């Protein structure tokens, strides 16, 4: 079954901790994205990657880091520098960056405790 | 100026009516446009994509694009209670080749 898998579904982080959100896809898509969604707001782009070993900052990259060592995987680390990390995090992928449809994983809800 | 703007709603329509959702965008060179449906607590689900001026129909859904006016809309015919969700407009901007999303329009279909 092709798709995008995010894990975990729920994640709790203590103040000052780094946490890593997993995103794996078996759609053979080149492009992958991370978005953050807060209540009442749209999706805001954190990072995106067009190919392996290359990624670009989105609009709200501060306090986050990513890697793209494999085509299938695009993990997101939320660092302690991110002052307000509680949000719904969404990973997406598309065939490429140019005019193709993006499909989403089921999301990870991160809460700071 | 926001790149993609939608009326936040909420929009309420009776069951069986037509729901009309609207979106405007800032980048005149944008080439691809998408509508996603998002149920509460879930991730967005792609329901329509449109690339050319005019209408595109898929079942009860019709997307309309007017590039000259920088306007894209989604019509839902014969609205059902299961259509109650937030609808997100997304535009793939030429600038940076990124998807920009609107804040979404909340739709409630009243039985």
Q: End-to-end distance of chain B, in Å?
A: 37 Å
The low-pLDDT segments of chain A are none
* Total helical segments of chain B: 0
Gross morphology of chain B is globular
Low-confidence stretches of chain B: none
Summarize it:
The complex is a heterodimer of chains A (113) and B (111). With 113 residues, chain A is mostly beta strands. Chain A has no helices and 11 strands.
General description of the model:
The complex is a heterodimer of chains A (113) and B (111). By secondary structure, chain A is mostly beta strands. Chain A has strands at 4-7, 10-13, 19-25, 31-37, 43-51, 54-57, 64-66, 76-78, 87-94, 102-104, 108-112. In chain A, strands 2, 4, 5, 6, 9, 10 and 11 form a 7-stranded mixed beta sheet that branches. Chain A is globular. Chain A starts with a strand and ends with a strand. The mean pLDDT of chain A is 92. Chain B has strands at 4-6, 11-14, 19-25, 32-38, 45-50, 54-58, 61-66, 71-76, 85-92, 99-101, 105-110. In chain B, strand 4 (32-38) and strand 5 (45-50) form a beta hairpin. Chain B has 111 residues and is an all-beta fold. In chain B, the strands form 2 sheets. In chain B, strands 2, 4, 5, 9, 10 and 11 form a 6-stranded mixed beta sheet that branches. A 5-stranded antiparallel beta sheet of chain B has the order 1-3-8-7-6, with no helix packed on it. The model of chain B has no long low-confidence stretch (mean pLDDT 92). The N and C termini of chain B lie far apart (37 Å). At the A-B interface, strand 5 and strand 10 of A face strand 4, strand 5, strand 9 and strand 10 of B.
Please give the structural blueprint.
The complex is a heterodimer of chains A (113) and B (111).
Chain A: E1 4-7, E2 10-13, E3 19-25, E4 31-37, E5 43-51, E6 54-57, E7 64-66, E8 76-78, E9 87-94, E10 102-104, E11 108-112
Parallel strand pairs in A: 2-11
Antiparallel strand pairs in A: 1-3, 3-8, 4-5, 4-9, 5-6, 7-8, 9-10, 9-11
Chain B: E1 4-6, E2 11-14, E3 19-25, E4 32-38, E5 45-50, E6 54-58, E7 61-66, E8 71-76, E9 85-92, E10 99-101, E11 105-110
Parallel strand pairs in B: 2-11
Antiparallel strand pairs in B: 1-3, 3-8, 4-5, 4-9, 6-7, 7-8, 9-10, 9-11
């Amino acid at each position: 079954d092709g798709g995008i898998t995010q894990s975990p579904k729920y994640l709790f982080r203590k103040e000052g901790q780094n946490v890593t959100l997993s995103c794996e896809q078996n759609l053979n898509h080149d492009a992958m994205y991370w978005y953050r969604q807060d209540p009442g707001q749209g999706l805001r782009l954190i990072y995106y990657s067009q190919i392996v070993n290359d990624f670009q900052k989105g609009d709200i990259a501060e306090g986050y880091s990513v890697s793209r060592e494999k085509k299938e995987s695009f993990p997101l680390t939320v660092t302690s520098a991110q002052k307000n990390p509680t949000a719904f995090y969404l990973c997406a992928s598309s065939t490429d960056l140019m005019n193709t449809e993006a499909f989403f994983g089921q999301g990870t809800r991160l809460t700071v405790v | 100026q926001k790149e993609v703007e939608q009326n936040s709603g909420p929009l309420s329509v009776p069951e069986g009516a037509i729901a009309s959702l609207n979106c405007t965008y800032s980048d005149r060179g944008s080439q691809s446009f998408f509508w996603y449906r998002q149920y509460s607590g879930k991730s967005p689900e792609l329901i329509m994509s449109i690339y050319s001026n005019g209408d595109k129909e898929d079942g009860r859904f019709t997307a309309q694009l007017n590039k000259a006016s920088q306007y894209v809309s989604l019509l839902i015919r014969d609205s059902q209670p299961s259509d109650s969700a937030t609808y997100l407009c997304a535009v793939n901007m030429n600038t940076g080749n990124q998807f920009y999303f609107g804040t979404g329009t909340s739709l409630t279909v009243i039985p």
